[in-house]
């Protein structure tokens, strides 16, 4: 007897959710939209997270946020109504801490004072690298000069500059402000070295998230609103990448996109979770 | 094969003649010697922290014997550029340097002129400059220089070029660099000397990139001095290597005067 597989009209040829064993989620634009007064949860996302949490599919929130600790970030999401703890979140800071430990590095830290406690277990004496995070108002000339002199004191081929995220700018309330990538570029230029980005879409960062999920990279899906960094970045590493039609998604640019073809488009996180749970 | 006899010498100021408010040992007398030798000379500086008038007064105070016409500064060249292009710049400059732009309109800015402005190298001011460039149509980022770093009395500090690189990255624009090592700047600096072409010139400076490589790229000879921001090994950073690397301006000027009398095979 022959078995035929029929697909309904609305199903893509290869459904992205088949065989998914782990899920990575971007936060801003997927769970909630940021805004001047703290932003607001996206409709259906609070319930979607709850359903995912009670399912057997492990997930992590993957964010490039580097100005606050995971605990504070989790508290912010809890305030919006999400059932999230800091263990659910993968941010560049803990990934950076792990990397520093693995490579036996002692950083000169140019990071936001609020995240300094996360580096408490790392020695910063006699530094042999520079680690930058988004410091917003703490990016001062003297702080930049201190980091610069640390780099310059190393021999040119040993200069290690890590940046937690390589963003150019971002929206802070209604204003566009410079992101950490700009300041890292300043040091890169002055010291003639290349920065290593620890954060999306860097492999080191995604690897860390996937290790925490405990699944194979090809069985993972990344769901995000940034088609380049989230979707394209995940696909480049062998994950599936799914684009939500929320957050910074814009139909004219992102569907179809000139370079990246997501494994799927979903209206929002709620639809993504519906598909995942009904297919697994 | 021919003989090289220098007709003109270009001399960098900060790090070569003086470091902040102290003059390099023997520099004043060396400059007097070059004046008496009959070789054309000009001080070419990427200085952007203070007005030309204030720089001049400071140099005279340090014992350098010079007249205003001996100076060619990137600040002056930038002002000429801005007026020519009819830009309305946001002046990312220290107040003292802003005085040189008194007659330039800065209302509703459509460009950014950036120099060494330590009091403005911070999040608020850089974000303001970024938004100015992001919002203006055909915005232009004009760098008085693209200096990586410079020597201060207490060590090295980031130059304006680092923050130019930051703004370039975030805006996607490429800065117009007015001062050294731009070809036009070197050419303008010798335009007053009749019959002098770039091949007749020697540039003396402490910055292996902006002074030496910049000058050599357009056909001048470059002498790297081991004062100011010079660090051991700098002479190996460029290809072709500096024409000469010498301890200080005094040795460099001695060499130029010697060449002027005797020439050398090329």
TrEMBL record, chain A:
<keyword id="KW-0378">Hydrolase</keyword>
<comment type="similarity">
    <text>Belongs to the HAD-like hydrolase superfamily.</text>
</comment>
<dbReference type="GO" id="GO:0004427">
    <property type="term" value="F:inorganic diphosphate phosphatase activity"/>
</dbReference>
<dbReference type="Pfam" id="PF13344">
    <property type="entry name" value="Hydrolase_6"/>
</dbReference>
<dbReference type="InterPro" id="IPR006357">
    <property type="entry name" value="HAD-SF_hydro_IIA"/>
</dbReference>
<dbReference type="InterPro" id="IPR006355">
    <property type="entry name" value="LHPP/HDHD2"/>
</dbReference>
<keyword id="KW-0479">Metal-binding</keyword>
<comment type="function">
    <text>Phosphatase that hydrolyzes imidodiphosphate, 3-phosphohistidine and 6-phospholysine. Has broad substrate specificity and can also hydrolyze inorganic diphosphate, but with lower efficiency.</text>
</comment>
<dbReference type="GO" id="GO:0005829">
    <property type="term" value="C:cytosol"/>
</dbReference>
<keyword id="KW-0963">Cytoplasm</keyword>
<keyword id="KW-0460">Magnesium</keyword>
<dbReference type="GO" id="GO:0016791">
    <property type="term" value="F:phosphatase activity"/>
</dbReference>
<dbReference type="Pfam" id="PF13242">
    <property type="entry name" value="Hydrolase_like"/>
</dbReference>
<keyword id="KW-0539">Nucleus</keyword>
<dbReference type="InterPro" id="IPR023214">
    <property type="entry name" value="HAD_sf"/>
</dbReference>
<dbReference type="GO" id="GO:0046872">
    <property type="term" value="F:metal ion binding"/>
</dbReference>
<dbReference type="GO" id="GO:0005634">
    <property type="term" value="C:nucleus"/>
</dbReference>
<protein>
    <recommendedName>
        <fullName>Phospholysine phosphohistidine inorganic pyrophosphate phosphatase</fullName>
        <ecNumber>3.6.1.1</ecNumber>
    </recommendedName>
</protein>
<dbReference type="InterPro" id="IPR036412">
    <property type="entry name" value="HAD-like_sf"/>
</dbReference>
TrEMBL record, chain B:
<dbReference type="InterPro" id="IPR006357">
    <property type="entry name" value="HAD-SF_hydro_IIA"/>
</dbReference>
<dbReference type="InterPro" id="IPR023214">
    <property type="entry name" value="HAD_sf"/>
</dbReference>
<keyword id="KW-0963">Cytoplasm</keyword>
<dbReference type="Pfam" id="PF13344">
    <property type="entry name" value="Hydrolase_6"/>
</dbReference>
<dbReference type="InterPro" id="IPR006355">
    <property type="entry name" value="LHPP/HDHD2"/>
</dbReference>
<protein>
    <recommendedName>
        <fullName>Haloacid dehalogenase-like hydrolase domain-containing protein 2</fullName>
        <ecNumber>3.6.1.1</ecNumber>
    </recommendedName>
</protein>
<comment type="function">
    <text>Phosphatase that hydrolyzes imidodiphosphate, 3-phosphohistidine and 6-phospholysine. Has broad substrate specificity and can also hydrolyze inorganic diphosphate, but with lower efficiency.</text>
</comment>
<dbReference type="GO" id="GO:0004427">
    <property type="term" value="F:inorganic diphosphate phosphatase activity"/>
</dbReference>
<dbReference type="Pfam" id="PF13242">
    <property type="entry name" value="Hydrolase_like"/>
</dbReference>
<dbReference type="GO" id="GO:0005737">
    <property type="term" value="C:cytoplasm"/>
</dbReference>
<dbReference type="GO" id="GO:0016791">
    <property type="term" value="F:phosphatase activity"/>
</dbReference>
<dbReference type="GO" id="GO:0005634">
    <property type="term" value="C:nucleus"/>
</dbReference>
<keyword id="KW-0539">Nucleus</keyword>
<keyword id="KW-0479">Metal-binding</keyword>
<dbReference type="GO" id="GO:0046872">
    <property type="term" value="F:metal ion binding"/>
</dbReference>
<keyword id="KW-0460">Magnesium</keyword>
<keyword id="KW-0378">Hydrolase</keyword>
<dbReference type="InterPro" id="IPR036412">
    <property type="entry name" value="HAD-like_sf"/>
</dbReference>
<comment type="similarity">
    <text>Belongs to the HAD-like hydrolase superfamily.</text>
</comment>
């Amino acid at each position: 007897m022959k078995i035929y597989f029929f697909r309904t009209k609305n199903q893509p040829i290869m459904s992205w959710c088949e065989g998914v064993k782990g899920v990575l989620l971007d936060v801003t634009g997927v769970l909630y939209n940021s805004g001047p007064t703290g932003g607001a949860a996206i409709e259906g996302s609070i319930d979607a997270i709850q359903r995912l949490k009670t399912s057997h599919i492990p997930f992590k929130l993957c964010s490039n946020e580097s100005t606050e600790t995971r605990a504070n970030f989790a508290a912010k999401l809890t305030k919006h109504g999400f059932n999230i703890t800091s263990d659910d979140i993968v941010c560049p800071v803990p990934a950076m801490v792990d990397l520093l430990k693995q490579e036996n590095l002692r950083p000169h830290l140019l990071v936001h004072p609020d995240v300094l406690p996360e580096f408490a277990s790392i020695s910063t004496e006699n530094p042999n690298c520079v680690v930058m995070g988004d410091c917003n108002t703490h990016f001062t000339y003297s702080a930049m000069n201190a980091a610069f002199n640390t780099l310059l004191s190393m021999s040119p081929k040993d200069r290690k500059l890590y940046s937690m995220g390589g963003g150019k700018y971002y929206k802070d309330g209604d204003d566009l402000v410079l992101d950490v990538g700009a300041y890292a570029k300043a040091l890169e230029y002055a010291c003639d070295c290349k920065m290593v980005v620890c954060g999306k879409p860097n492999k080191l960062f995604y690897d860390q998230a996937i290790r925490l999920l405990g699944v194979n990279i090809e069985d993972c899906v990344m769901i995000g609103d940034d088609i380049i960094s989230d979707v394209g970045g995940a696909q480049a590493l062998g994950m599936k990448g799914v684009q939500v039609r929320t957050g910074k998604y814009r139909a004219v640019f992102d569907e179809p996109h000139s370079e990246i073809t997501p494994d799927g488009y979903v209206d929002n996180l709620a639809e993504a979770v519906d598909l995942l749970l009904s297919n697994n | 094969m021919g003989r090289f006899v220098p007709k003109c010498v270009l001399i960098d100021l900060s790090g070569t003649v003086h470091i902040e408010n102290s003059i390099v040992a023997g520099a004043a007398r060396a400059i007097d010697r070059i004046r008496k030798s009959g070789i054309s000379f000009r001080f070419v500086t990427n200085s952007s922290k203070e007005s030309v008038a204030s720089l001049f007064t400071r140099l005279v105070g340090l014992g350098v014997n010079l007249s205003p016409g001996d100076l060619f500064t990137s600040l002056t060249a930038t002002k000429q550029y801005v007026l020519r292009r009819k830009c309305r710049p946001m002046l990312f400059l220290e107040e003292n340097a802003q005085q040189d732009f008194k007659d330039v309109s800065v209302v509703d800015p459509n460009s950014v002129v950036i120099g060494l402005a330590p009091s403005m190298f911070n999040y608020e001011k850089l974000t303001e400059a970024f938004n100015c460039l992001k919002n203006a149509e055909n915005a232009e980022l004009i760098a008085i220089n693209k200096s990586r770093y410079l020597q201060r009395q207490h060590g090295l500090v980031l130059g304006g070029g680092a923050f130019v690189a930051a703004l370039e990255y975030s805006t996607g624009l490429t800065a117009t660099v007015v001062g050294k090592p731009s070809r036009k700047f070197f050419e303008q600096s010798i335009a007053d000397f009749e019959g002098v072409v770039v091949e007749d010139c020697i540039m003396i400076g402490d910055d292996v990139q902006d002074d030496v490589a910049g000058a050599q790229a357009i056909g001048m000879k470059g002498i790297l001095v081991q004062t100011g921001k010079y660090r051991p090994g700098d002479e190996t950073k460029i290809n072709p290597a500096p024409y000469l690397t010498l301890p200080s301006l005094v040795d460099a000027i001695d060499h130029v005067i010697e060449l002027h009398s005797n020439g050398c095979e090329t």
